[in-house]
Amino acid sequence: MIFLYGLFLIGITVWSYGLIDINLTLFNNHYWEVFRQWIIQLGYFNRQTNVYVYIGIIIGLFAFYWYFYKYGKKTNPLLVGFIVGSILLFAYPALSHDLFNYIFDAKIVTTYHQNPYFLTPEHFRGDPWLRFMHWTHRTYPYGPTFILFTLIPSFLAMGKFILNYFLFKLLFISSYWLAIFFLNKKNKHWAMIFATQPLILMEGLVNSHNDLIGLSLAVVGVCLLLDNYNTLFSRLILIFSAGIKYITFPLVFVQTKNTKLNNLVFLSFIGPLFYLSFTREIHPWYFLSIFAFLPFFTKIILDFSIFFFGLLISNISFIHFGVMNIEDQLIEKNIILLVFFMLNAWFLFVKYYIFKKSSEFNKLVAYGLIILLAAISHLFMLLKTVPFSSLQIQQLLLSDIKLTIYIVPVLFIISIGLFLCIRRIPFILKIGISILLISLDYFLVHTRLFSVEYVVIFPIIICVEIFLIVVSYKKPRFITSYRINPVLQFGVFFIIFLTASVGLFHYFSTDFGIKTLYYQKAIADAIDEHKHTWEYNKIQNKKEYDKTNLISIKVFPKEQNISGISYLLKKDHNLQVRDRGLTYIICYDLVCKQKFYMDGILKRGDLFPPEENKISFDEIFTIYEVPGKVEVFGYR
């Protein structure tokens, strides 16, 4: 299994170079250039495929993590950690540019002999390294401890970039090894969790965030504290950890035997994380430091594995859009994180409440409250994150989902209650209840007009379905004791399970960029604006044109749903989508990867319209007018 794990990590290392900065050339070698050109085709020009590959990587990492956690008792964590570190030393920080900022910040001291707290990287405009750097406008944002650590590899590299790159990577790998070494001395189980935890591997080793070094120092300090080794020295190391990222400062007050104080310390650490989550963008590496509490709260940390999985999955927004901090990327990321947080909360509710205590009636009441809270949370998260273009579009969104948000969950709870709690009802009524359950499921998943249901409804219905599946598997008597026909019971749960599986696949395979009504509204407005301009030009030039309100829409990729756009065009602009009329092409990928006509000639490949044909109207995408059969298309 270790051999397979190593091969899988090598695959991750190869994949990571698909997102290498276009302006960065690590090696002047023909074979390297051939490999680089091949791999960036996946990273930059097949982003949707790259998203699927990344999701597969995360699933694979968690599968190995689960295996080593359950069956790796005889495996040496030090060996696993050594293999992981040795392979990921060569991985490129695919989802972050921070490593290059660390390198340049240290260079300001070792090469330019200046203070990075006072001067920004862009102050040194002639430096060739700036061409592949980001965030060049900021001064040094970290604590003083980290700059001291980074001066060592910067000095040893003697100004050579490739040496800087690998020595900095080695700094992160070494801190990872150090943490595993100290954890292994206390508990091999802790060490194995740390060595294989996907969040640590991806955000700490691959993406090289300095939170890993702060985490490793904190782990060393905690382990020394548990050994009763020089308490003052242990707390000094914890202070050094806080000097990298101040969020680990509460660990300075942790105690070896005072559980109540440790709970308070843990809450004082979690509190700022939740504050940051509600006031700014949530980044996965913010949660790396939580593993410093592994010796004290192992069970809690393991229980939140679903949320950690969601943190890594949220990176698909960066892979998909290629940039951070844009509105559509933030919306997608917030939705993903909320979904997985609610799934994790539901898992904990089922694990610690449903199967361990309380009467059937109280279980049902708590179960219903969780559904309503999930629904309301999704509603308010949408209101908070979706950048509504007008009050009208906000009202349209609310009118579209309010029945689903408030009425359908209540009906669902009532039907579940009848299904689970009423012992003696006529057989025909049991069949009716089962049909009602399936009908509500179908209504929730398939029949909403807009794509909003994939954002709001799937997480709720998935929670409900997973609950039913778990209950039927773990405690079949909880269901069968109510005298429902076994064949009907099997049919109900089979359909629920099938719907949940299809729903999960569709939810995570659909382009998140079209899931908000905002984009559909923007596209509809753009089409209407262009059609008015086109008609006005025809009138001015005294040319004949089709005066009907019919238009034609072609969508790339073909599977994208345009029902919301069609509805808005009809409702707001009196334009009907048919097979004839002025043609509009909407590209939901970066380019239209289909055959197309230009200047009357059929061509294949990527459609890059000329700049002179651009009709700019909005920051979301641009309308181009192209001569030939394809007259205009939306290009995001």
From TrEMBL:
Presence of keyword Transcription regulation: no
Record flagged with keyword Acyltransferase: no
Keywords: Membrane, Transmembrane, Transmembrane helix
Residue ranges of the TM segments: 51-69, 76-95, 139-158, 165-183, 236-254, 261-278, 284-301, 306-323, 335-355, 364-383, 403-422, 427-445, 451-473, 485-508
Cross-referenced Pfam families: MptA_B_family (PF26314)
Chain segments annotated as coiled-coil in the UniProt record: none
Protein name per UniProt: Uncharacterized protein
Organism: Candidatus Roizmanbacteria bacterium CG2_30_33_16
